[in-house]
Design a protein that fits this description.
Catalyzes the conversion of 1-hydroxy-2-methyl-2-(E)-butenyl 4-diphosphate (HMBPP) into a mixture of isopentenyl diphosphate (IPP) and dimethylallyl diphosphate (DMAPP). Acts in the terminal step of the DOXP/MEP pathway for isoprenoid precursor biosynthesis. Belongs to the IspH family. This is 4-hydroxy-3-methylbut-2-enyl diphosphate reductase. The protein is α/β, with parallel strands linked by helices and about 290 residues long. The protein is built from 12 helices and 12 strands. The longest helix is centred in the first third of the chain and has 16 residues, at about 15-30. Helix 4 runs parallel beside helix 5 and helix 8 (about 190-205) runs parallel beside helix 9. Helix content is about 45%, strand content about 15%. About 45% of the residues are buried. The chain is flat. The two termini are about 25 Å apart. A 4-stranded parallel sheet has the order 1-12-10-11, with helices on both faces. A 4-stranded parallel sheet has the order 3-2-4-5. Strands 7-6-8-9 form a 4-stranded parallel sheet, with helices on both faces. Bound molecules: FE3-S4 cluster. FE3-S4 cluster binds near residues 14, 74, 162 and 192.
Length: about 290
């Protein structure tokens, strides 16, 4: 008998759930055009459903019709975005996750006090670009202890991208201490991320085979995959049901399942159901947004 162990913390986080709720309500109530700047979350299953509800994805608020509605996604945006939106009379549905909005406030205030802002994260990630936009795009951005050791500035104020691994954040702080920097720090790694990473690790330690569910574009899911691989070399990334490695699954008795904060519940249930039934048949077409949330 196979044992399927689902990580205690897996699937949609509070911020993503809130963003999808707000987007759905806005799409239902909006009379004119409605846009989101970039995909609302990094999950194709979800964004395709939202597009069917009329939400068009654009790259910049300059592309939105004057006076139309634009959803600000959970990753947040920089100050410049809000300035353009005001100039173009856009109606904003602000779905910035409150934990990200807090980082915007922190870096803005620290910058006003003359601190050098250091963001630990991926310089290309939209959340990091948005945070940087609240300190005049002046932030130093590092993603490793090696990069931190090369920083020349002093009097730093350090924050983290909400989804980075806590071990990376700790290593960066250690490197700053070693190089004698003066710095203050607010650990802004989100609990939802830390909880998912911890329960993914615990599940991977027990499993013969691990499935990490989510979109290949989702940075938090990719990090879960890396963590899982460390403790269970037999780890597989499952973006949709077709990726389920059923032959491998058949050989193992303890199968762990972890899912990123942007992974819809329907995919998690579908994967577990398919393994339980021991078949790859997929008749569970998703028909409504509720299917994504259930
Ligand atoms: Fe917000 Fe944390 Fe999710 S920052 S978007 S609740 S991962």
């Amino acid at each position: 008998m196979k044992e399927i162990i689902r990580a205690d913390h897996s699937g949609f986080c509070f911020g993503v759930r809130q963003a999808i709720d707000k987007a759905e309500k806005a799409a239902d109530q909006c009379q004119g055009s409605i846009y989101s700047c970039g995909s609302l979350i990094h999950n194709k299953l979800v964004t395709e459903k939202l597009e069917k509800k009329g939400i068009q994805v654009i790259k910049s608020p300059d592309e939105a019709e004057i006076g139309s509605t634009v959803i600000v996604r959970s990753h947040g945006e920089g100050k410049q975005f809000y300035d353009i939106a005001e100039h173009r009379s856009l109606k904003l549905v602000d779905a910035t996750c409150p934990f990200v909005a807090r980082i915007h406030d922190l870096v803005r205030t620290a910058r006003e006090k003359g601190k050098n802002i250091l963001i630990v994260g991926d310089k290309n990630h939209p959340e990091v670009c948005g945070i940087n936009g609240w300190c005049g795009d002046s932030a130093i951005i590092v993603n490793s202890a090696e990069e931190a050791a090369r920083i020349e500035e002093d009097d730093l104020f350090v924050v983290a991208q909400t989804t980075i691994r806590s071990s990376v954040f700790d290593e960066v702080l250690e490197a700053l201490e070693k190089s004698g920097k003066t710095f203050s720090v607010t650990n802004t790694i989100c609990n939802a991320t830390a909880n998912r990473q911890k329960s993914c690790m615990e599940t991977a330690k027990k499993a013969e085979l691990m499935l990490v569910l989510g979109d290949t574009q989702s940075s938090n899911t990719k990090k879960l995959y890396d963590i899982s691989k460390k403790y269970c070399t037999n780890t597989h990334f499952v973006e949709n049901i077709k990726d389920l490695p059923l032959k491998e699954v058949e050989k193992c008795n303890r199968i762990g399942v972890a899912a990123g904060a942007s992974t819809p519940e329907c995919l998690i249930k579908e994967v577990i159901a398919n393994m339980s039934e021991n078949t790859l048949e997929n008749n569970n077409e998703m028909n409504s947004m509720d299917d994504l949330m259930d």
